[in-house]
Specification:
401 residues; alpha/beta; Archaeosine Trna-guanine Transglycosylase, Chain: A, domain 4; Transcription Regulator spoIIAA; Rossmann fold; 3 domains; six-stranded mixed β-sheet; 10 helices; globular
Amino acid sequence: MADTAAIRLRRGEGRAFKAGGPWIYDNEIGEIAGSPADGDLVRIEDYNGYPLGVGFLNRASTIAVRVLSRKADTVIDGAFLERRVRAAWQYRKDTVDTSSCRIIFGEADFLPGLVVDKFADVLVVESLALGIDRLKQAILDILVKVLAEDGIAIRGIYERSDAKVRLKEGMERVKGFLSPPFDPVVEIVENGIRYLVDVAEGQKTGFFLDQKYNRLAIQPLAKDGKVLDCFTHTGAFALNAAKGGAKEVLGVDASQLGVDQATRNAALNGMSGRVRFECHDVFELLPRLEREGERFDLVILDPPAFTKSRASVKKAVTGYREINLRGMRLVKNGGYLATCSCSHFMTPELFAKTIGEAARDARRRLRQVEYRTQSPDHPVLWGADQSLYLKFYIFQVVEEA
């Protein structure tokens, strides 16, 4: 970072950043000093020149600066990156089962725009910002070294930087090996259940680690019951229900690829006799099951994000209300509903309101068993609202008397 490279905020701007937010938007910047290129480090200054930190500049993005440090004199070098990586790994060792986990969660680990998931002895990296992309290899080299110190030998690294959001950073979407090629189908164990994870072709980085302990939470509710798992993806909730002692589990997904993967995972765990997977549009299936008189002891709703922008929130609310209403009507009186939203733009307050409206329309009463968020390896950084995205409720569903 050149000493002269700096951005200066407009008077009165940067309120979210000053409250702990990790970003500065393009319309908050009054001037840029020096001649920094996009992706370069810049000093962050208030409107009066007061130093506020250091971050990556990218004029191509609405998020013009991603904050690396709130100390303006911080030297961003190998030692700095190693401190960040070591802190991230230590936190996972303190809080979660690390056999498979998210080791780096972008802004919440103070490495903005970078995600690294560990699946057994394979790393999957997703780089979503120009500045961090330039440091990606250095960070991975450090991470491999740090893991080796704990006796963990990484046999391969795969990049899944193929999200559309990269285009907003002026970057191309890319995927492929960052190490000598290896079999991208990796076997992992989570909650005592074995899965085959396709890190090259699966959704996102191949497997949704953020629901690890939410899946565990539904196990006791499934005992001796009949379970419906909607939007099953690789079958994780369905298999946890079976492990919890469910007599019969139906998992459904609109993706035949997902259904095939889930079916393989059931066979891998010797659960094929109690768990079956079918390819359906959930919005079409739920009303049909209701008409046919089907009822379940436990219904699980784990949909993809119905909204990825504020502009489409209203439409998303309609979708969440519909599936929750239909799901509640399929629950036996006194049975259970597990329902979630993984969209950041569906706020906790709005999600709760939407579920409440669905319950009224379905003429059901809800007794909240528990409310959960994402697994601790996806930490929620206070002040960085976007780091909280997963909302997960378990309810007992009671028919109105």
